Each structure stands twice: as structure tokens, then as C-alpha cells.
Automatic annotation (TrEMBL), chain A:
Main location: nucleus
Entry protein name: Centromere protein M
Keyword Ribosomal protein: no
Localization, UniProt: Chromosome, Centromere; Nucleus
Claim: Disulfide bond is one of the keywords in the record: no
GO cellular component: chromosome, centromeric region; nucleus
Keywords: Centromere, Chromosome, Nucleus
Organism this protein belongs to: Chrysochloris asiatica (Cape golden mole)
Source domain of life: Eukaryota
Gene: CENPM
From TrEMBL, chain B:
InterPro entries in the record: CENP-NAC/CAD_complex, Chl4/mis15/CENP-N
A GO biological-process term: CENP-A containing chromatin assembly
Gene Ontology cellular-component annotations: chromosome, centromeric region; nucleoplasm
UniProt family annotation: Belongs to the CENP-N/CHL4 family.
UniProt keyword annotation of Nucleus present: yes
Transmembrane portions of the chain: none
Main location: nucleus
Protein name (record): Centromere protein N isoform X3
Keywords: Centromere, Chromosome, Nucleus
Keyword Nucleus (UniProt): yes
Compartment list: Chromosome, Centromere; Nucleus
Length: 179, 305
């Protein structure tokens, strides 16, 4: 049971669960804090993991959205995400996965090429968001965005589904022409 | 008095054997002397129960009073429950701050309420300075279930806390953030971070075990004391190219490749120590990096053997 499957458990009433995956837990903690401070009508649960597969001896609720955070300064971070992606069921990529790339602003520190991360997001047909999680303003903005996405993926927004959100975000999904 | 409270009190009273009834009611200290004197202990339990519930109605018993009675019952019949023991470990070596009971109670309520609005939390002092805590769990939409409460006994001057687990599996992830549970045979486990008021129970750390392994390995490698101050380390590589892919231009090259790597930092050893906990590198680190204090050198020439 090491593969994460979407919609495999009974959802709890008004609860939305997000899984943040990254080797740098400090950043995830800050992102999680900001997300929980948002005004939101749903009950939010944030799971933080450094890699997949998740420990199997714990019961956890159904995961509505997975966010993989890659630091462009660290090849280790990218490799970790690539290995974790093997443990995610294909149906998650219908709008329930999102990639976050941090550190693009400091070109000189980047050891992961822009092209590599674009190719990753294109392969998995999921939105790729570039952000700087060290600045308060950007951190809060990203947290707000993730909360809205999470609510949609959990089905709490009438009229919008995860799949329709995916098609609305098509500008964020790199296409073959970008590469 | 609420019907649910009445029902709850009825059920507790039914559980109490007649021999302990007076002691428990006196300890509860809720019914008046006059009411206690008028109780007839010769009547059948059901009739006694009805009378007691009427007395409670007269005094307008609240949920908190009922919870109090429940704690007292559990204190008397604690052997009926299965208890797990947890030992908390403090991170720094400083002396424990004097225990402030009110502050503790407020922090505890705050941390739990932040995650779940529907919980009933009650406190009661026990013998030997113990603090008994009773938590009845509800969900976002349902009222707390008073019949499947969790009890905790905390001895403030010690790092030990006892917990009885209820069958409600759903709350285990929540409470296990405060004390991590393992399915191990020995009940004593070491946990850090008891009740940091900034803790949010809605954030769940999946890889806690791995994090602790990394911290342990880092501590074994680097120790607890401040690292020697070093500003750079230099590695000169003179090795032949090694390849797993059969022959290639580089693999056939006879001369060794020359390469120079220099690490510099205001405090290099501390930086290396913080690599694994920050998630930037795997633990254990390469022995080439960790042998610097042992060997007492920071210029290395690496050659093929």
C-alpha cells in the first residue's frame, strides 16, 4: 500500500487535507502556518512529509491535494521529488497535484536548470508555480492560493472541480513548445 | 438540566457500586449535605439513581460537573483502564521553569481548541501532585462523545504522563502530535516538545521517525558541544574517471582527472552539522567531511589507491 491514491477513502464532513512534500521542512512549516491562518470555511488539515512513500502504519484521511516543493538551489531536493512521484497514483495528476519551485530569483545559486523543472511539470501535466517562500508577502499569497485550490480539490466549491481547475490553469502547465 | 447531561450522570451512577457510592458523592462535593443525608442506600439502585438525578436537577448540574464526576469515578477505578506511559525529554539543558498550573491549563485548552472546537476538557487534581485531564472528543459537526473520553495523568515536576486511549481512532493522529505513539512493546517512550503553545495540531508531520533518526545520527557524528571554528576546507581530487557505463572517452583516459573543491563559511563545521537536519543533505554525511576534526586537517588530496 505504498502508492497514494486519490478518492480512496470516505471524506470527512467539511474537511480538506493537503500534503506538502519537500526536503526542507522549515519552509513547509511556514507555509502550513500561513495556510491555517487563512479565513476558510472548511476545516483544513496539513500533512508535511519529506518524501514518499508515507509511513504505512498510520491512518490518515483522504488527501485532496499534493504539493511538491522543489528548491532550484538543490539537486537533492529535485531528486527527492522525482523519486517520490513514483509513489503517486496516476489519477492524482488529474488536477490534484501541483509543483512549487523556489529560489528562481537567485540565478547564481541555482543548480537545477529551469528546463529540468519545466520538463518535470510537463511530463506530469500539472501546474508549476514559481515562488519565493522566504518573503512574507509572497509566502502569504501562495498560502492563499493553495487554500483556494485545496477547497476546490476537496469539492467544497460548488461548480468547480479539480479537473476543471486544471483546465483553467493551463497557462501554468508547461507545454512541449515551452521546452 | 440538559437531557444529555442527565443521561450521562445516570450512566455514571449506574456504574458505581453501592459500596463506593457515598465516598464518590462526597468527593464530588456537588450535592448539598442535606441532599446526601436524605439518600436511602437500602433502596434498589435504579430508584437511588432517579433520586440522585433529581437532586442534580435541583442543583442544575452542568456538563462540567458531570465530567468532574466522571474523572472521580476513573480515579477510583483506574485499574479498569489500560494506561500507556510517556516520558518527555527537554531539548535544552536548562533548569525546568517553575510549573504554573493555570498557564498550563490555558495553553492546553488553547492548543486543543485551535484544532477542534468541539472538545470537552476538564481538569482535576489527584494525589501526589498529579493533574488529571479528561478530554471528550467531537468533530467539526458533532458534539463531543462523553462516553469515550481520553484520560491523561500528568505529574508536573516529572517528565512523565500517563494516557488511557479510547477506541476513537480518529483522534489518535491529533493526540499523537503531542505524544507520538508507536506500536512497540515497551510502554516508555521518549518524546520531545510537550505543549509548545505555537504548536498547531492541524499540522501533521509524517516523517517524524526519519527526522529523529537524522537528529540522532547528527548528534552521534558531531556531538553536543560547539564545533571547532573553521573557515574553509579544500579537497584536491586526482583520480581516474570511474564509470558504470562501459567504455567511453573519459573512462579510457589514462591520466587522472584533477579537480579542486573548496568549502568556505564563517563557521564551516556548524554549517556541516546543520546540513542534514535542514534537509539539504542525507544523514550520515560523507566521512570526507566529518573526519575534519578527527584528523585535524582541512587540506585533503584524494588519489586512487
Amino acid at each position: 500500500m505504498s502508492v497514494l491514491r486519490p478518492l480512496d477513502k470516505l471524506p470527512q464532513l467539511n474537511t480538506a487535507t493537503i500534503l506538502l512534500v519537500s526536503t526542507e521542512e522549515a519552509i513547509l512549516q511556514q507555509l502550513a502556518d500561513k495556510m491555517l491562518r487563512e479565513d476558510c470555511s472548511s476545516q483544513l488539515l496539513v500533512h508535511l512529509a519529506t518524501s514518499l512513500p508515507l509511513p504505512s502504519n498510520v491512518t490518515r484521511p483522504q488527501i485532496d491535494l499534493i504539493v511538491f516543493v522543489v528548491s532550484l538551489h538543490s539537486k537533492h531536493s529535485l531528486q527527492n521529488v522525482q523519486e517520490s512521484l513514483c509513489h503517486v497514483d496516476a489519477r492524482f495528476f488529474l488536477g490534484r497535484v501541483c509543483f512549487l519551485a523556489t529560489g528562481a530569483g537567485q540565478e547564481s545559486h541555482c543548480s537545477v536548470h529551469h528546463h529540468t523543472i519545466l520538463k518535470l511539470a510537463c511530463t506530469y501535466q500539472s501546474p508549476l508555480l514559481f515562488t519565493d517562500l522566504k518573503t512574507e508577502g509572497f509566502l502569504v499569497a501562495m498560502a492563499q492560493r493553495l487554500v483556494r485550490m485545496l477547497q476546490i480539490c476537496a469539492g467544497h466549491t460548488p461548480g468547480v472541480s479539480a479537473l476543471s481547475l486544471l483546465s483553467l490553469q493551463s497557462s501554468e502547465i508547461p507545454s512541449l513548445e515551452d521546452l | 438540566m440538559d437531557e444529555t447531561v442527565a443521561e450521562f450522570i445516570k450512566r455514571i451512577i449506574l456504574k458505581i457500586p453501592m459500596t463506593e457510592m457515598m465516598t464518590i458523592l462526597k468527593t464530588w462535593d456537588f450535592l448539598s449535605e442535606h441532599q446526601l443525608q436524605t439518600i436511602n442506600f437500602r433502596q434498589r439502585k435504579e430508584a437511588l439513581m432517579h433520586n440522585l438525578v433529581l437532586f442534580c436537577e435541583e442543583k442544575c448540574a452542568s456538563l462540567n460537573d458531570a465530567a468532574s464526576l466522571d474523572i472521580i469515578y476513573t480515579q477510583v477505578f483506574r485499574h479498569q483502564k489500560l494506561w500507556d506511559v510517556f516520558k518527555m525529554s527537554k531539548k535544552t539543558g536548562r533548569d525546568p521553569d517553575p510549573f504554573d498550573e493555570d498557564h498550563f491549563k490555558r495553553s492546553f485548552m488553547k492548543v486543543l481548541r485551535r484544532a477542534l472546537q468541539n472538545v470537552t476538557v476538564s481538569f482535576r487534581d489527584g494525589e501526589e501532585n498529579a493533574m488529571w485531564i479528561r478530554i471528550a472528543w467531537g468533530t467539526h459537526n458533532t458534539k463531543p462523545n462523553q462516553y469515550k473520553a481520553t484520560y491523561m495523568v500528568y505529574y508536573p515536576q516529572t517528565p512523565y504522563v500517563f494516557i488511557s486511549f479510547s477506541r476513537l481512532k480518529r483522534n489518535l493522529p491529533l493526540l499523537s502530535q503531542v505524544f507520538e505513539t508507536h506500536n512497540s512493546t515497551s510502554p516508555l517512550q521518549e518524546r520531545s516538545l510537550w505543549l509548545n503553545t505555537n504548536m498547531d495540531l492541524r499540522i501533521i508531520h509524517e516523517n517524524q521517525l526519519e527526522k529523529e533518526r537524522v537528529l540522532k545520527v547528527t548528534q552521534e557524528t558531531f556531538g553536543d558541544y560547539p564545533q571547532p571554528r573553521l573557515e574553509f576546507a579544500q579537497y584536491q581530487l586526482e583520480t581516474k574517471f570511474k564509470s558504470n557505463f562501459g567504455t567511453s572517452i573519459l573512462a579510457d583516459r589514462e591520466e587522472p582527472l584533477r579537480c579542486l573543491i573548496k568549502f568556505s563559511s564563517p563557521h564551516l563545521m556548524e554549517a556541516l552539522k546543520s546540513l542534514a537536519p535542514a534537509g539539504i543533505a542525507d544523514a550520515p554525511l560523507s566521512p570526507l567531511l566529518t573526519c575534519i576534526p578527527n584528523k585535524g586537517m582541512n587540506y585533503f588530496k584524494i588519489r586512487d589507491k
